[in-house]
Structures are given as C-alpha cells and as structure tokens.
Amino acid sequence: MLAIEDVVTTYGAVRALDGVSLQVETGTIVAVLGANGAGKTTLLRTINGLVRPHQGRISYDGRDLLKMRVEHVVQRGIAHVPEGRGVITELTVEENLRLGALWRGDRPGSTQSMRQVYEMFPPLAERRQRSADTLSGGERQMLVIGRALMAKPKVLLLDEPSLGLAPRITAQIFATLRQLREEQGLTVVLVEQNARSALSVADEAVVLNLGKVVAQGKASDLAADEKLRHAYLGF
Amino acid sequence: MFRFLNLTLSGVSNGMIYAAVALALVLIWRATRIVNFAQGAMLMFTTFIAWDLSQQHNVNYWVCLIVAVVAGLILGGVTERLLVRPVENGPPLNAVIVTLGLFIFLQGLAGAIWGNAQAHSYPPAYSIIGYKVGDRTLLFAPNDLYIVIAVAVILVALYLMFNRTPVGLRMRASAFAPEVARLLGVGVGRLLTVGWALAAGVGAVAGILAAGTQPGYVAPTGYFDALLVYGFTAAVLGGLDSSVGAVVGGLLLGVLLSYGDGYIDNNIEGIYALLILIGVLMIRPSGLFARRSVRRV
Q: Can you give the residue ranges of every domain in chain B?
C-alpha cells in the first residue's frame, strides 16, 4: 500500500499541495483529477522524490519514501511515467527501453522484459533501432510506459498519459493499464486532466483543487455526482 | 608540393593533440554544460607529475604515462566532487568562475613546486627524426605516428564505451535528460564524477603527447595555456557536443595552423587560431557537427 499522509509541498510562497492524504491499495487504479495547477503533477513529483515536501509522510509497504534518493525509488518498485515528452530523443527506442532495466543488473531478465514490451506495443518493435525522436505522440507514450515496465514495477505513476493523443489511442493505453492490473496486480496512480476517460478506467478517484483534496471515493460514484463534475471535472 | 605535404603531415600530428584536448572539453561540456577552463592547467599539472618522475627519478616513459592518467582521473573526479558539485545548481557563470579559480590555483601550485621561470623538456616516446622518402625527410616522425594512433585509440575506446556499454548508456542518458535518468534509477551524480575523471584522464594523455613535441618548452605557464585555447577552438569547430567533431575540428585546426606557419609567418600562430575561432562563431556558431535539432533547455 502506498500511503500519503498530510503532505504539504511548497514552491516559495505557493502551497502546491496543502495537506493531501491518500491511500492507494495494492492492485487498484486510482485517478488523480483536477484542473491545471491543482497540484496533480506535484503530487507525483513528491512521491518519487523529485521535490521534497515541507511536511507529511509518504511510505510504500511501510518503507519511508521521503528518506530515499530519487534513483532508489524505482528500485523499490515505484516507476514513474512522465508525459510523452519524457522520452530521451537522443537515444534509440531500444536504448530508452534498456535504460529502464539497467539498475536490475539482470541481462536475461531485461531481455525478456523487452520482449514483453514489444509484444504489448508492436509499433515499438518495428522502430527499435530508430531514434526516439522519430516517434509519433502515441508511440512516445507507449515508449515511456514500456520503459517504466522494464523495471518490473509494482506501482506505476502516470502523468497525463492521454495528453495530445487521439481518443482511440488513449483508450488503447487505458485498456493496457487494466490488463496489467488484472494480470500482474499492478497498482496505478493515474494523473489526468481528461476526467471522463480516467474515471472510466479507475477504481478509485481523488479530486484536487488548489492543492487540497475536495472529493474522494469510488470512481463510479464520482462520475455520477453531477455537481462535482460541473464544479471540478468539466464534463 | 613536397612542402605542402610536409605542412599537412605536421599539422595532422599537432591536430591530433588539439583533438585530444578538445575531447576532454567535449566530455565535460556534454555531461554538465560547463566549459572547463581549468583543463589546460589540469593537464599541465599531471604532465609535471610525470615529468618529475621521468626526469628526476628516471622512471620509464610508459609508467609515467600511466601515472599521469591516474593522476588525471583522480584530479578530475575530486574537482567535480569538491568544486563543481556545490555550484552545480547555480547560474552557469558560477561554475565557469570556479574552473578559472582552479586554473590559477594549479598554475600557482605547479610554479611553487617545480619553478615558474625555467622551461623543461619532456622526452618523446619515439624518435622525432622524420621518415625518409628517397633522400628527402618528411616532417612526420615515428613519434608523430604514435600520437595519431594514441588519440585514435582513445577516440575508438570512448566511442565503444559510450555506445556499447551499460555505463555509457547511463552517461548519455544523464547528459541528455538528467531528471528522467534519475527516475529510471540512474545515479546521475556519480556518473558526473566519472565523466569529469574520464575527461581529465584524456587530458592527461594529451599533456604528455604535447610535452614530447615541445623540447625545452614545458613550463607551468605559457605553452599549456595555448594548448587549452587550441583545444577549445577545435572543440567549437566540431560543435562542442560531438566527439567525432572534436577530432575533426582538431585535425582541421592543426592543418590550418600549419599552413599559416609555413606559408605566411610562424610567429603569429595564435592569431590564426583566433581568426578561425571568430570565423566559426560568425558563420556557423553551432559548429560543423552540431545536431540539427535545437536542444530544448
């Protein structure tokens, strides 16, 4: 279980996260929703250690994440999927993927993970020796997700996977997330602007506004709450 | 025609030395976006350690070379850890000032240990008497061949390390996208130390190679500063971002300077280098080998 308790993260005088608490049970998909500037991305960056909170606790299976270096968080099973822009365009597709598993120091295991990623995302297999710079938006999103999966994570933190993608490709990617959850018990924290499609794939959801949790519950309940939808989710 | 050939050959062997200095600068630029102005002083210092062993204690050439490289690796690594790391997240100018400070410090220290006034000579590895073609002597000696081969070996070794090994992949990822690399479990900080160490090691080789071509000229000040300027010019010619560019830039610079020396006047070599540097910055500021896509910062 990923436990976030009373976290306050500040940028100068701005409280990007203002006392956020959230429990993510193993094997669930939790959507983090809210408008631009609500603190969604800051939440992910605080979990993986890129920014340090002013106060609060974050632990995963009882282990304190706040004491850990960024590069060690993934080694505990928490992988981060940045937006599609997070592909390293100077490297090839295959180098991007290999990089995701280097810390495992397990060549045969990495090769097997790579084969699975290629099976999951065939377009990547066709372009494996090409520069990642040549990929389309959808393919980049596949690459960053595939690269995170190379780490054999137990938790996947996704930052706006639908950004700039055609609805059909977004649906494909969300279907993949569900499949990973069913088959491998993967836990997913899904930060999304696109609340409607995020709620359709998530089990639980939390809505942030100006750094505070304004609603929390089953995804289906939140989707049914018309007032909430109008006020914060824009559909 | 024979003169042209000779000037070209002599330019090639000097150019390979500039290329090695340029490589050292490029390695650090790629990893940290810092131009290491202390590189000239660093390779001067490691060369003097080797000189001390070689001339005062009669140690074998190759042992001295290895000692210089190891000293370079340590000096580079320590520099990154102690001097560059604290200013890493500040404005780029801070790091530049730190490298300038180190340059002055090392020069002063070397002067205090080995004396500033007197120039020393460093033995070349092989004969400096040119090869003979018929009854004419080329301006290209076994030692020049050694220089060309040594720098070529360094270039190939670096290429293989960066493109074929896990540590090379980690180093490239850290240079291109440090934040993403950390999220993927790469210890970016440690790799920066490795990068600086490696660069200073390459610089140490360049220092020894250069010293062997300058009999009676090796002093803590003077020649090694010029070497940094030439190395920097070569690196800019090649685009600062590319190892192959550094070597091509070094060769091009070496040959051009050699023509300038031979056909115009050999007392104003520094001015040719300056003209070339200004010319490149005006006509093609990103260098001959820059990536076509503009990097986002």
A: 23-223
